[in-house]
């Protein structure tokens, strides 16, 4: 039984990953075309609108999908009530956004933003009408139709946006693309799933008892992820804030593009084993082993190659971001711990502890920035260095939370994290020794060092997995996958 669930979780992750990569690739191609048609100001206006929208969408997120996934039996009445509650919350938030559109445009010193926000406030309302039956796919860990829909919508929206850009030659083409995406997603959801929701308020009280904590958790998580930029903008220059945000985006690419897609399938999978404590702990450790097998070498690799990476990918004008990118890459080490704890505690209806963890971290970040602002050497680099030190304390705090809330040994968790660290250190030393000997162009040097790093990491890690597979069950699973992959390659 549990073996089948693990297989479904793995397959679900692969479908989510495929959707992420395909959508990102299509989006990149679309952006490369649009930048040749529209002006930077057009993208700037839409970016401002997106920031505002993200805040209001977060406030309207009732977590109805997560509620429906975690319940033992999902009835039609639950589906209908969740669908209706979601529509109501998103309508209220959209109405508030519409009423505040003018004040927000004045605050951001961008008059045209008012009309853009008035149109964009329709997006949450439209998305709320998506067929709630799609949740049943997730409950069954069947992500194939969801992936096909998201990729299909992305493919359809690209020509709509490009044609609009050619005809209109303004930011409205991008807004039309956003609206088209939501409309096609809603229509597609009814096409691929037969369920037809009806208005119902019967179970709102039960669902709100979950949603209020979920809303509080997403709000605290949103503040935790944005507090750096908000406060740094007060004490440092806008250029520093820009460097920090861009550095974050590129430093965390391995996590956002490879590991993050696993969270959806993990949440749905945990729902099916949450009452079996040992299997729950096994699922968590399996996820952490897989995640850190990718995150640790990625973080160490970006740290070692941050100077070349910055020069090749971002250009010479961003060279000051190189040490920031290198340091921020180390923050990825806390992300798998955090995201798996979120999935587990949400499933176990212990969301208040997530809020508490966020509040502690927010307080620490605020205290760090205020403390540094009173010193004479407060700059972006010094803050980032202290921020990395802070994440070590955050990881220890997460390990303690695992112990007291799930009874999962912190020593076991740290062992899973530390195993990939050994070959990662070997990899960094290989890169450091090889780097001074290369005298090609920066791009070629970067490619050579990335390949050398991979070649040095993989065999050492494979040996470690083989040696420790009897002690670490979670790595034994990875070892079996590697053996099957090797066997299939030899047959081919």
Automatic annotation (TrEMBL):
It holds the Pfam family Polysacc_synt_3. It is found in: Cell membrane. Keywords: Cell membrane, Membrane, Plasmid, Transmembrane, Transmembrane helix. The chain crosses the membrane at residues 21-38, 44-62, 83-101, 116-137, 149-168, 174-192, 284-306, 318-341, 353-373, 385-406, 413-432, 444-467. The keyword Membrane applies. It comes from the Bacteria. The keyword Transmembrane helix applies. It is a multi-pass membrane protein. Its main location: membrane. Belongs to the polysaccharide synthase family. PANTHER family: LIPOPOLYSACCHARIDE BIOSYNTHESIS PROTEIN WZXC, PST FAMILY PREDICTED COLANIC ACID TRANSPORTER. This is Lipopolysaccharide biosynthesis protein. It comes from Vibrio alfacsensis. The lineage of its organism: Bacteria, Pseudomonadati, Pseudomonadota, Gammaproteobacteria, Vibrionales.
């Amino acid at each position: 039984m549990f073996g089948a669930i693990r297989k479904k979780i793995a397959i679900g992750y692969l479908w989510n990953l495929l959707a992420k990569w395909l959508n990102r690739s299509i989006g990149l191609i679309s952006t490369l075309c649009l930048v040749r048609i529209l002006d930077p100001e057009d993208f700037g206006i839409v970016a401002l609108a997106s920031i505002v929208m993200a805040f209001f969408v977060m406030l309207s997120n009732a977590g109805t999908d997560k509620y429906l996934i975690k319940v033992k039996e999902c009835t039609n009445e639950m589906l209908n009530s969740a669908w209706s509650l979601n529509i109501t919350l998103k309508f209220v938030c959209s109405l508030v956004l519409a009423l505040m559109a003018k004040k927000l445009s004045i605050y951001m010193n961008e008059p045209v933003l008012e009309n853009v926000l008035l149109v964009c406030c329709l997006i949450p309302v439209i998305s709320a009408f998506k067929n709630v039956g799609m949740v049943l796919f997730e409950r069954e860990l069947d992500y194939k139709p969801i992936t096909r829909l998201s990729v299909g919508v992305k493919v359809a929206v690209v020509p709509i946006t490009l044609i609009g850009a050619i005809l209109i030659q303004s930011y409205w083409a991008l807004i039309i693309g956003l609206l088209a995406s939501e409309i096609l997603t809603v229509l597609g959801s009814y096409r691929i799933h037969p369920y037809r929701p009806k208005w119902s308020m019967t179970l709102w009280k039960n669902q709100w008892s979950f949603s209020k904590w979920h809303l509080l958790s997403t709000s605290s998580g949103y503040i935790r992820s944005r507090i750096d930029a908000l406060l740094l903008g007060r004490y440092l220059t806008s250029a520093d804030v820009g460097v920090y945000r861009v550095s974050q985006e590129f430093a965390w690419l391995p996590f956002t593009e490879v590991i993050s897609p696993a969270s959806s399938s993990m949440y749905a999978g945990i729902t099916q084993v949450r009452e079996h404590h040992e299997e729950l702990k096994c699922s968590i450790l399996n996820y952490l082993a897989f995640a850190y097998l990718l995150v640790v070498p990625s973080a160490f690799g970006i740290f070692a190659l941050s100077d070349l990476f910055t020069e090749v990918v971002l250009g010479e004008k961003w060279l000051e971001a190189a040490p920031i990118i290198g340091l921020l890459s180390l923050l990825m080490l806390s992300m798998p711990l955090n995201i798996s704890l979120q999935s587990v505690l949400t499933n176990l209806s212990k969301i208040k502890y997530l809020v508490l963890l966020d509040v502690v971290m927010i307080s620490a970040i605020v205290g760090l920035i205020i403390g540094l602002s009173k010193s004479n050497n407060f700059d972006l680099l010094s803050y980032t260095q202290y921020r990395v030190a802070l994440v070590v304390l955050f990881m220890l705090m997460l390990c303690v939370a695992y112990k007291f809330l799930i009874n999962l040994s912190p020593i076991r968790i740290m062992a899973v994290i530390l195993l990939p660290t050994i070959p990662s250190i070997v990899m960094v030393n290989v890169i450091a020794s090889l780097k001074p000997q290369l005298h090609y162009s920066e791009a070629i040097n970067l490619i050579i060092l990335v390949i050398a790093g991979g070649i040095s990491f993989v065999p050492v890690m494979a040996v470690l997995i083989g040696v420790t597979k009897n002690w670490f069950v979670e790595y034994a699973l990875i070892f079996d996958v590697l053996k099957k992959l090797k066997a299939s390659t030899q047959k081919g």
